[in-house]
Write a structure and sequence with these properties.
One of its GO terms (molecular function) is hydrolase activity. Its EC number is 3.2.1.14. It is an enzyme of class 3 (hydrolase). This is chitinase. With 470 residues, the protein is an alpha/beta fold. It has a single domain, classed as TIM Barrel (Alpha-Beta Barrel). It is built from 14 helices and 13 strands. The strands form two sheets. An eight-stranded parallel β-barrel has the order 1-2-4-5-6-7-8-13, surrounded by four helices. Helix 2 packs parallel to helix 11, helix 2 runs parallel beside helix 13 and helix 7 crosses helix 8. It starts with a helix and ends in a 5-residue tail after the last helix. The N terminus is likely disordered.
Length: 470
């Protein structure tokens, strides 16, 4: 049955899962309380606060019939070195809780904000409305991310700092005590965002490593991350005893063997309801050849093929072997592509992306266009899933991934328009459906997507994950 659902790679993972299920560590991992209000199956997607600027994608656009958890990106760990004071802050006060919706056009319920008599506006207010209309929906605040993990190592370094940091995060996001002093004048304050967030997602990228800019990092981070998770669990459980509500604690963790390099995986995961494994970015734009951002199974031609865990099935098998229970594993999928220009040799050949701009809003200038770009903007993927407008869709059976090729792709770069061979590696409903089948076959917790605004207008990718919830 498993082979008919996906491919032999999943059968391999199933066999590995069956083997490690008997390990004492698997059975002994108690973890955070999973009862109460923690969903037993998860389809989760990030919603980024900046979505309201770029694409103009609003909370009202989130397809809540196809998911049950929203991870809001991002909250920001802070640290005042002069006073050694940790903190936990909103990223963008305007988008988060100050932006007034003057009409009902972009609101969840079609009702405009009641300025100046509200204390909560923006995305937070719309999330509150979305939850009211969908009682089973959970919303977490995700802390850190690639660019905002700067102070994690500092806030996790001592017991006193950990206690203060966790208390600040709970105060800001769970209790909803937002800063004041901005505009509208009444926005924010004590309890303004109470009830918006059901838990906290830790996205420390990465303990022991500088990553995009960690400060004061070191080898002690690996254990400090475990202690930090324990402190979050302790304080969240203490609050649960007061309110009777279970508060979620999850984390975004790296794929492959890197997970144990950065984390004391088994002990860290014990504190969590589940882990969102970032089984993407296996190949990034700084690589030497055009390659898939995510792989379902190992392709011996891939630059990192010597590492058997450097793919989704391999990563899941590795986590299981490390004693992470299947019911705590949530598999990550990307809703964006890798675009390579001047790639005459096609997949796994050299490329030259000179002129592409990661800050551009034009799909043909982006190193990583979204699935929405490919389908709804550029039309290089047709509604039927075939290639279009000069692009041919191909399927890599070894990796279990699609890609597009065009010997004469046109790109309006800042330096001028060029027509060059183009290769685009992306995810589509078929490849994402493989993840859905994997989750079901192995009894995993679910799947997570980065991020929801990057899906096509018809929600094809999140729709391919939705069967997990049935």
């Amino acid at each position: 049955m498993i082979r008919s659902l996906v491919r032999p790679g999943v059968a391999l993972a199933a066999a590995l899962a069956a083997g490690v299920a008997l390990l004492p560590a698997q059975a002994a991992s108690a973890g955070a309380p999973l009862g109460g209000q923690a969903p037993k199956k998860v389809v989760s997607a990030y919603f980024a606060d900046w979505n309201v600027y770029g694409r103009g994608y609003y909370v009202k656009d989130i397809p809540v019939d196809k998911l049950n958890v929203i991870q809001y990106a991002f909250g920001v760990p802070t640290f005042d070195a002069a006073t050694e004071t940790p903190g936990c802050s909103v990223l963008d006060p305007w988008a988060d809780f100050q932006q007034v919706y003057w009409s009902g056009e972009n609101t969840v319920d079609g009702v405009a904000d009641n300025y100046p008599d509200q204390r909560l506006y923006g995305n937070f207010n719309q999330l509150r409305k979305l939850k009211a209309a969908n009682p089973g929906l959970k919303v977490e605040i995700s802390l850190g991310g690639w660019t905002k993990s700067t102070h994690f190592a500092q806030v996790a370094k001592t017991a006193a700092r950990r206690q203060a940091f966790v208390a600040s995060c709970i105060d800001t996001f769970i209790k909803g005590n937002l800063p004041t002093g901005g505009w509208p004048e009444n926005a924010g304050g004590i309890g303004a965002a109470a009830g918006v967030f059901d838990g906290i997602d830790l996205d420390w990228e990465y303990p022991t490593a500088k990553a995009d800019g960690n400060i004061d990092y070191g080898p002690e981070d690996r254990h400090n991350a475990t202690l930090l998770a324990q402190e979050f669990r302790r304080q969240l459980d203490a609050l649960s005893r007061e309110t009777g509500q279970h508060y979620l604690l999850t984390a975004a963790l790296p794929a492959a063997k890197n997970s144990t390099k950065y984390y004391e995986l088994r002990d860290f995961v014990k504190q969590l309801d589940w882990v969102n494994i970032m089984t993407y970015d296996f190949n990034v734009m700084g690589g030497a050849v055009a390659a898939h951002d995510t792989l379902f199974t190992r392709d011996p031609r891939d630059p990192n093929a010597s590492d058997w865990t450097w793919n989704t099935v391999g990563t899941v098998a590795y986590y299981l072997a490390q004693g992470v229970p299947a019911k705590k594993i949530v598999v990550g999928v990307p809703f964006y592509a890798n675009q390579y220009i001047r790639s005459d040799a096609g997949l796994y050949g050299p490329f030259d992306n000179t002129g592409l701009d990661g800050e551009s809003l034009q799909w043909d200038q982006k190193p990583q266009p979204s699935y929405h770009d490919l389908v709804d903007v550029a039309g290089v993927v047709s509604p039927t899933g075939a290639g279009a407008n000069g692009y041919t869709r191909k399927w890599n059976a070894l990796a279990g991934e699609p890609y597009l090729v065009n010997p004469a792709g046109t790109h309006a770069l800042a330096s001028g328009t060029v027509t060059v061979a183009t290769t685009i590696c992306y995810s589509d409903p078929r490849s994402i459906g493989e993840r859905t089948a994997l989750v079901k076959a192995l009894g995993l917790r679910g799947a997570m997507a980065w991020e929801i605004s990057q899906d096509s207008d018809d929600g094809a990718l999140i729709g391919a994950l939705a069967p997990i919830l049935r």
